Amino acid sequence: MVAHATSSRGPGTKAKGYAEKYRALAEPIDLIAVEFNKSDRNLAAFEVERA
């Protein structure tokens, strides 16, 4: 499920491999990315993906 995805910054969580250490647990992993707007001080975008 992707709610809204925008990324103008560097490599994301998937590229950095943060979830890899949890794959051996054989449980679903939800990857959640959140982007904040610094000038508005508010949530700009988010993305949720089941891995």
Give a structural overview.
Helix content is 8%, strand content 33%. It has a domain at 1-10 and 27-51. The N and C termini lie close together (11 Å). It is built from 1 helix and 2 strands.
The count of helical stretches stands at 1
Low-confidence stretches: 1-7
**How much is the radius of gyration in Å?**
13 Å
Structural category is mainly beta
Q: Biggest sheet, strands in spatial order? A: 1-2
Distance between the termini: 11 Å
Specify the overall morphology: elongated
Largest sheet entry: 2 strands, antiparallel
Count of strand segments: 2
Proportion of β residues? Answer: 25-35%
Helical residue percent?
under 10%
Mean pLDDT: 81
Element layout with pairings:
Blueprint: H1 13-16, E1 30-37, E2 42-50
Antiparallel strand pairs: 1-2
Give a short overview.
By secondary structure, this protein is mainly β. It has a domain at 1-10 and 27-51.
Keywords:
two-stranded antiparallel ribbon; disordered N terminus; mainly beta; 51 residues
